[in-house]
Amino acid sequence: MGHDWVTHQIENCPLDDENQPPRKIIHVDMDAFYASVEQRDHPHLRGKPVVVGGSPEGRGVVAAASYEARKFGIHSAMPAARAARLCRDLVFLHPDFMKYREVSRQLRAIFEDYADHIEPLSLDEAFLDVTENKAGLPTATAVAKEIRRRVRDELRLTCSAGVSSLKFVAKIASDYRKPDGLTVVPPERVLAFIHPMPVRKLPGVGPATEKRLNDIGIFTVGDLAAVPAADVHRRFGKHGAYLWRMAHGEDPRPVQSSQPRRSQSAEQTFAEDIEDRRTLERILAGQAERVCRGLESAGLRGRTVTIKVRYGDFTTVTRSETLEQPTNDPFRVAEMATALLDRTEAGLRPVRLVGVGVGNLVGREETLQLELPLEFDD
Fold it and tell me: What dihedral angle (degrees, nearest 10) is formed by the CA atoms of 39, 43, 47, 50?
């Protein structure tokens, strides 16, 4: 769980051959995807604050918020009840994952006209390697502009894109001018672009790591780059070494078209230990939503739900339950995660970290076979 997979990728990739031309990578990220699809399909919702997610009457969480809702401080993974208090006119909608998956399929079809190497991160975002683009366009910038035009014309939605020679820089760049923005960072501008950024912009820097870095005077990516590598490694281990490499403009990871997965998970380490049980349940629900978005994007479902709890004294426990039928329903996973939390001491002992994962994954075809009846009535 967490940043371990990215760290593994960085550590086990050789540096790019300096004799080879820089790669051309685009990160495309749809703008407020779920909410924007609903506003597109329901014109009366356009211009209104919209939230897609669970009910504010229960323990639901926000899966996506329109930009009108974000003006009130509403964001994903926020408890739906709190979102309702922040905006009295907020419109709540239950997610329609079948519809979102179909839009994601249409988006993928657009990508495939320009790139063979496509790495989806979720239903609404992906990396594309367009070092040699299939459309024969002269630059990666031209490809990104054409993709954004087609998304607007064909899907009637907007997306933001970042263009760079490095994956993590392309991802930061796609967020730089959201919504409906395009940011291009050529190789010679990478360090000038990332060094003024808050250190939390680096992938793998969560609230806990950010606090530890801030405590020793590291607030920006440039601050991190100025610290000797040995000092960073001593304080933060292998994870710190990979962050230091990124701060120096290194990210050898290629765009990977397919990554066999045995599980999908998310976790969070807290800056301060949490003792409130309801807070932990809400965090698990938000994690379940993110995990299931990744499964949806990959066309996968899982049979086993696992939670991970690390107490304040660093004791770590895991609890798992296997379902009869595989699922990628975030509400079902959140329900299971909450039930598993009952089998821990969360709420009685301070908790430093929680995470949720879905394992024993099967593809869409296998799922259909599993759901077929074993016997037929005459």
Answer: -40
Strand partners, 305: 321, 358
Contacts of 153 (CB under 8 A, 6+ apart): none
State the residue for tokens 């329109």: 66
Distance CA 161, CA 138 (A): 17
CA angle, corner 57, sides to 52 and 60, nearest 5? 45
- Show which residues are catalytic: 125
Residue 317: beta bridge partners? 309
Its CATH architecture, for the domain 34-95, is: 3-Layer(aba) Sandwich (3.40)
Peptide bond into 179 cis (omega under 30): yes
- Architecture of the structural domain at 22-32+98-192: 2-Layer Sandwich (3.30)
The domain defined by 195-247 folds into DNA polymerase; domain 1 (1.10.150)
Please list the ranges in the chain whose pLDDT falls under 70: 1-20, 258-261, 364-378
